Amino acid sequence: MKVEIWSDIMCPFCYIGKRRFEAALEQFPGKDEITVEWKSFQLNPNLKSQPGKDVYDYVAEMKGQSRDWSVAMHDQLAQTASEVGLTYNFDKAVIANSFDAHRIIQLAKKHGLGDQAEERFFHAYFTEGKDVSNPEVLQELGESIGLEKEEVAEVLRSRDLADAVNKDVYEAQQLGIRGVPFFVLDRKYGVSGAQPSEAFTQALNQAFGEWKSAQPALKTPDGLDGQVCTPDGNCN
What are phi and psi of 184, to 5 degrees? Predict the structure, then answer.
């Protein structure tokens, strides 16, 4: 069964939601039959990268609030993140447009490295304070998860995979997704936000149970039940 997760690497609740979902999935009996696909989403596609901008002032200005309000809000986010083992260093955060980062994540998905890419980019932004719009940083991050140097460089030199990012964004719009993280289970159930792990467990149980019951049972034609070897080493 497929679980699709729409996410932006600059979304604090997306990283928290990832951890909570992972905790639920780790304990889920059918986890080996679950496939996770990460989907691109930009909370602010028109954002201009501002490497020298203080994140507290940026959010305060955007929300029409005071700097003190912004600091308190970010402190609360950092506390929530710490409860799932994450470290948010907002003092080091760099205001950056995430579009090119999403293109590298799309490249990673082509090589089966989508989850590794999401994790690496989240950590780079929230913990390390890296500028995820800087081509040199993107090159470094891409290579760090096992992508080929020249393939990453070619994507950054071009507009490659921009269509893949835009396709994910369009899909989100068609599904009525207006915020992230958003989890879609078997294209039948949607879970919005960084829910507690128990909520993800409940959603997985319901969606997986229906998916499993809909899978066709294989039948063996009469007389064609031959000799086999099994994982436990028995051959008969």
Answer: -115, 120
Structural domain boundaries in the chain: 2-52+94-211
- Express each pLDDT in 118-153 by its tens digit: 999 999 999 999 999 999 999 999 999 999 999 999
Q: Looking at this protein, which amino acid is placed at residue 86?
A: L
- Sheet containing 182-185: give its strands across: 35-40, 2-7, 182-185, 189-192
Altogether, the residues listed in the chain come to a count of 236
Q: In 3-state terms, what secondary structure has residue 4?
A: strand
Q: Is there a contact between 155 and 161 (Cβ–Cβ < 8 Å)? A: yes
Residues 6+ apart with CB under 8 A from 124: 130, 132, 137, 141
pLDDT of 223 above 70: no
Cα separation, 94 vs 71, whole angstroms: 15
How far, in Å, CA of 187 to CA of 232, rounded?
Answer: 36
- What is the CA angle 224-228-233, rounded to 5? 165
Q: Is 225 left (phi over 0), alpha (psi -120 to 50) or beta?
A: beta
Residue 107 Cα to chain centre, angstroms? 14
Q: Taking 90 as the threshold, does the pLDDT of residue 156 lie above it?
A: yes
What's the Cα-to-Cα distance from 165 to each of 29, 100, 116, 140, 178, rounded to whole Å?
A: 32, 9, 17, 20, 16
Q: Which residues of 170-209 are buried (b: 16+ CB within 10 A; e: fewer)?
A: ebbeeeebeebbbbbbbeeeebeebbebebbbebbeebbe
Class of domain 2-52+94-211: alpha beta
